[in-house]
Amino acid sequence: MEWSLLTYCFSLMLMITLAPFRFRWPSSVDCMWEGPWFDIVTNVLLFLPLGFLFWLTRKPPKGSGAMHVFLLGFFVSTSIEITQLFLPGRYASVSDVLANAVGAWLGARLCDQAQHRLNRQWIGRLGLELPLMNIVYLLIPLIWLDGLAAGDDRSRSFLAWILGLCGSVVIAGVYRYGIKERRILKLWGLGVVAVCWFLASSLPAFIVSASIPLYGSGLVGVAVCGLVVLPIFKSSAQRRFEIPVLKRVWPLYAAYLLMLLLWPIPSHFTDWRGAWGFAELKDDPSIISMLRLIEDFAAFTLLGYMVAESHGRREISQTTSIIWSCSWCGLAAGLLQLGRGFHPGHVASFGASLLMFTGSAFGASIYWRQLVSIQRILSRAQHETPGATTPLDAMPAAYQVHQESVSR
After folding, report:
1. How far apart are CA 154 and CA 215, in angstroms?
2. For residue 150, which of 138, 156, 281, 386 is within the disulfide window of CB 3.0 to 4.6 Å?
3. Which of helix, strand or coil describes residue 348?
């Protein structure tokens, strides 16, 4: 797996932990040995996906095992805790450092166990061979942000259910189309994996209400099993199944973006209001406002990735695909901000539009850098075993164009 996805998730984690970025020289050093149990559990789960992705990205040297990831998580968390000392009202916690390190270790162990228990084709599609599966990984920090940015607004946390359904469609589609040997993972096991994925992703929503992640995880588990059993995905002999899956994700994700930018849904509209900068952030410089801006960036990063995935199935080059992706996402950002200007509680923002456009460009680049990484893997495999076939039957047609352009 290419490093860009891991870097993106790590960057968002830094934004979450260091928001609202108002650094000052501390008058005193506040340090605690242990914090609340909820913070400990949250910190474990916060680093779990990072440990999982790191293990997929780069295995540690032989003999070091997941302890290598534990030490990495320990030093990264220590750096974050030291940085938090420069944020007024924040403190460093030894228990947070240990919880983060344990979370990274558990993520690496989970990935390692999956690689041992499942065959290479299944774990390959989870990590390397299928760019479509990265949508599930990109949804994790977005669902985290949704729970954190909800604040006291309990109803806003239900937006995470829509994201959970998007992930359900992708997981079910990969299982239905992309896994040739389904017996290696039973349907009930797939449902459990989906439930755990959403439950871990929506943990911050427990602050608002425990029913949101609990009922949401049940909804995701039922949706995944239902999408596999019911004839939602028609059988096809074609090798390219990503577009049928994406077509079922688009309506859900479009509804999410619309509600995200216009929440709370207004009963009436007012005269249009707009600003060049982040006017709402100036009016309300709280951490919730900052997290909602970060959430907008993450939402359009995923949008850019999915648009690039859609264009990547066509016979076009990498540059053309990124330009098309940014154009469509920029148009979507502009229209959503235009509608936001008529909202009685919001103001349209050119700065927010530019932030969302930047996120979409980054999402498109993640997709194409993933394909470049796949190209290296294929080239290495063909060099080591000339004439050997590979299980990458879901490779987009655009990869062939990109490979030819690189060779020229």
Report:
1. 14
2. 156
3. strand
